[in-house]
Amino acid sequence: MRILAIALSASILLAGCGGPDARQQAATQSSLAAIASKTRTVPAPASYQPLPWKAGQWVLMKHTYPKRNEIAIHRLSLLRDDSGGCVTESDIQDYRHHTVIQHHWSRRPMHGDEAIDLLVKVVTRNDDDAPVVQDFSSGPMAAVKGMMKGMVSDIMAQLQPPGSLDSAPREEVTVHGGTFAGTARIEATVRLFGETHEFTSWYHPAIPLNGGVKSLSKDGEVETELLDYALEGAVSKL
């Protein structure tokens, strides 16, 4: 459900930005047009345990913001996950910007409370600008981690996971990324920036990293759909 929070926070932040950029809008539409619809059919799972993380996994999603008639294409990749650390990357193309963000952790965070403590650095590139590196291992940025921890932990704590996916309703769901039998339908609540938002999400453990097939916010702010995924082949876009 991390992706729900990312998509929703992007929606809220964009509401305060200027209008779409014609070049970025064209790039977003071009990227979407190049992604072929998948004919794969994935059977119902025997177990709803998440797929173990492994370097090289990636998922590709489309976030739709109906109230603004905008979309974003989001690739989430696991570039590294070993004794030397964990590196995740989000490559987001939307109507305003093309942003690539890498998070470098001393090891993979297992829950939200430790995510900030394990953060070593963040590398961000916006559009054609040079990448910006924020080093959280020492110096002034290390002190900032303390201020960030409360906010991030609060967000993570408000993600209400289901008590058991084994008892969740089962549905077959068809999206751009294929047809998935036996997806678990989940009702989730996210508290973000002082506001509470409710989602309905569909989860299938065959999908790496987040298991997300589809999600809909009940306030109509954002819809997320799986476009594609793979268990290997992730490469950095920086």
Characterization of this structure:
- This protein is of the alpha+beta class.
- The chain has one domain (2-230): Clam (outer membrane lipoprotein receptor (LolB), chain A), CATH 2.50.20.
- The chain contains 4 helices and 12 strands.
- The protein has helices at residues 2-14, 22-33, 112-118, 140-157; strands at residues 41-42, 58-65, 70-82, 85-94, 98-105, 119-126, 132-135, 170-175, 178-192, 195-203, 212-217, 223-230.
- Strands 1, 2, 3, 4, 5, 6, 7, 8, 9, 10, 11 and 12 form a 12-stranded mixed sheet that branches.
- A hairpin with a 3-residue loop joins strand 4 (85-94) and strand 5 (98-105).
- Helix 3 (112-118) packs antiparallel against helix 4 (140-157).
- The longest helix has 18 residues, at 140-157.
- The model is unreliable at 157-162 (pLDDT under 50).
Summary keywords:
alpha+beta, outer membrane lipoprotein receptor (LolB), chain A, twelve-stranded mixed beta sheet, 21% helix
List the helices and strands and how they pair.
Blueprint: H1 2-14, H2 22-33, E1 41-42, E2 58-65, E3 70-82, E4 85-94, E5 98-105, H3 112-118, E6 119-126, E7 132-135, H4 140-157, E8 170-175, E9 178-192, E10 195-203, E11 212-217, E12 223-230
Parallel strand pairs: 1-9
Antiparallel strand pairs: 2-3, 2-12, 3-4, 4-5, 5-6, 6-7, 8-9, 9-10, 10-11, 11-12
Helix pairs in contact: 3-4
Give a quick summary of the entry.
The protein is an alpha+beta fold and 238 residues long. It has helices at 2-14, 22-33, 112-118, 140-157, and strands at residues 41-42, 58-65, 70-82, 85-94, 98-105, 119-126, 132-135, 170-175, 178-192, 195-203, 212-217, 223-230.
